[in-house]
Write a structure and sequence with these properties.
Shape: rod-shaped
Largest sheet: 3 strands, antiparallel
Strand order of the largest sheet: 2-1-3
Low-confidence stretches: none
Number of helices: 1
Order of helices and strands: EEEH
Number of strands: 3
Radius of gyration: 27 Å
Strand content: 5-15%
Length: 94
């Protein structure tokens, strides 16, 4: 038994399903009318899984990098505030 995604016109084996949906577009699957998928579907499935994992890793990296940059900016602002406070106290004492 094989499955077929009518949205992206892809055939696949049952183990290729991703959370009961198409690994390419996420839409629902139907049982394939012919029974067996076309040659090369395994390679396309592996490519789709690899692409999904690559995008997940990229998203995690971007999230980490953005948070790190915000923290650096906040640290720099805090350090400048400390310097300004110290400068202000020094000029008042003089």
């Amino acid at each position: 038994m094989t499955y077929y995604c009518p949205k992206c016109v892809v055939e696949m084996f049952p183990y290729m399903k991703h959370e009961d949906g198409c690994p390419f577009c996420g839409s629902g699957l139907i049982r394939h009318p012919r029974g067996e998928p076309t040659p090369g579907i395994v390679d396309r499935h592996k490519a789709a899984v690899a692409e999904r994992e690559r995008l997940e890793r990229y998203t995690k990296f971007e999230t980490y990098y953005s948070a790190r940059e915000v923290e650096r900016e906040l640290t720099a602002v805090a350090e400048l505030q400390v310097e300004l406070d110290a400068y202000g106290q020094g000029s008042v004492a003089a």
